[in-house]
Amino acid sequence: MSLSVKTIFKVLIGTSVLLVVGCLLTEIFNLSVAGMQLKQACGMAANQAAELYTQETYKVRNDKSGGSGLAAFSANLNNINAPDGTLYVTGQFYDGTDTASIWNDLYSGNPNFNSFCNLTEGSTVPMYSTINGRTYATRYTLKDTNAMDKSISTIQNNEFEGYASTPLSGRNGKAIKNAFTQLNRLYVGVTTPGTLSNAHFTDPISYTEFSTNADRLYAVNAAQSALRMKSEYYTPVNIGIPYFDPETINKMFRWNATQLLTNMMPATMQQDESGNWFVNYKGFRCYVNDAYISDLEYYVLDTADSADAVTLQNLVGLTVGAGGSSGLNIIGTSSGVGVDNSNRYVTVVGIKYVIPVTYQGVTPLRQIFEYGWRSEADGDLVAGYNGAIGGWNGSSVPNVDRNVEATDHEEYSYVMDGLTNDDRGSVSATGELFYVLVR
Amino acid sequence: MSESVAFIFKTLIKVPIIIFASFFVMNMVAFMFIYFKMLGFSYVVMQEVVENNYIAGRQATQMQTYMTDLETEVPMVQYSTLIVGLDDSNNPVLWDKTNASLAYFDGGHTCGNKTYGSTIKAGQSHAGYRCQYGATKTVGVHCEYEIVWPLSYQYTNGGNVNGYTGTVNGYTHVADGSAYSTASDPYALTTGNVGDVERISENGGHALGVKIPIDIYYTVPGLKYYADL
What we know:
The structure holds two protein chains of two kinds. Chain A is an alpha+beta fold.
């Protein structure tokens, strides 16, 4: 039985349509499944980066109290290189060679730490980090909560008052260091340690001052506490505040994400048309070396406040109140210079990350679309030719014999079509997670 | 008259075709269901290793219970366990879940033409071994989906089949036609138990009892720092 011409064309067209539709369905399925997995993997990478940062692996174990005196686990990990040997993601999270130098780099003299301590309620401050020659902005925000509203009326930072006409650490409105006495002491110890050697803080307490509970009692105590914090490399994490240095947390996030997405095989990375290396994760081109933490939103929550307790439960699922531990049972410090309720506070940080991705697909569908949209020279001369291709048009005009090159043809690409502003044709995929430290 | 005969024959042919087609569709749906179930479970296992660098004893016990229940409740699932690493040839190494510890492997296990590893490759450790931040671990799930066809086999309670009192005489070896009665024959039936008869179909080469291995595993870094390591 012979097939008619019509039937042949029907079969051909039907096959083509079937192939394209099949590819389309496969891509849709892959997009939804792999997209979700990619988001989960990035979330895990960010969460574990936060976990690693708070573990402060650069600190040497204290051997003063009879400890073993072992050196800290290597604070840095191996670099991840692209297949051509160039550095893709660094494993050198910290700048410094020992605990002191690393701590100084992160806190003492670091403007980011100063900015964080003076972060006021409702404000957003960008902090910048430069990695591999590129600069990234991480926005730090202190959210409006009832705990912060109370801190302005029960300021804990006035324990340093009495030294100068202006309080040593400043009020700065509803700054986060107003909510935490210990953070304020750490801030003073890090930023103005020299001032704490003033006689106001170092002269012995007289009997009269002791018996009358003078303010200088608290000032001396606070000064000693601040200096001890500096000498023993205290950090906001030790106080229960998950502060992250932007450069360090970005490096950790990238390292984790690269290892997760490459299945521990960075040699499988590929290069795009522009020469940028990327991780091919189930059809997604992930430019992990440009991933970064874009926002850190801090919520200081009072466990004794009903509204804050609800917010805490919504964010991280921790429950306080009837039937569970209640912040009301945590007694604050009552003193002549203000009540310290920071023991009742829990700080939650919302971490938002960004990772540039583009989708190249797992089927030849992309190539099919690119082929369909590819246009040859639209009347303009193709580079290298004088208008006539040798041997084709029969013209007597001498033709340039030249091999046809890829650049002679106008190819479709997302970039040329103006779909994105990125030279890789990628868009920024974002995600968010909430991290909490509970003391 | 001839039309009615033709109709009868057509119906007789259609019925088994419809039955087989229905079983085919049922197998496809069941396979997809079990595959996605395993996919979700593998992700849980992977996340556990990423967040803790290993699978702790209690978690392993819960997983053991889950997989045992899966085998019991779902007839198509014949065997399910965890993949705890890769061997030197990059074959998955399966956990012998009759042991609570993940250090015991079901070495040499086969499913169809696939043979699973017996030892973890050099430079890596099994999923139950606690290691430091950045260590490489391969974890996942293994499950064997058995295709269900009509008349594949009959389940009994394991009692003797009428007429058999011991060695099953007269049965021939599935593969080469030799007699069954030789004790050294690896497929010899030493009891008249119907359960043993049933396993003829499982001993490879027979069209019925085909198992499809489902192996879903990930190679991930452990991302937890332990100060005591």
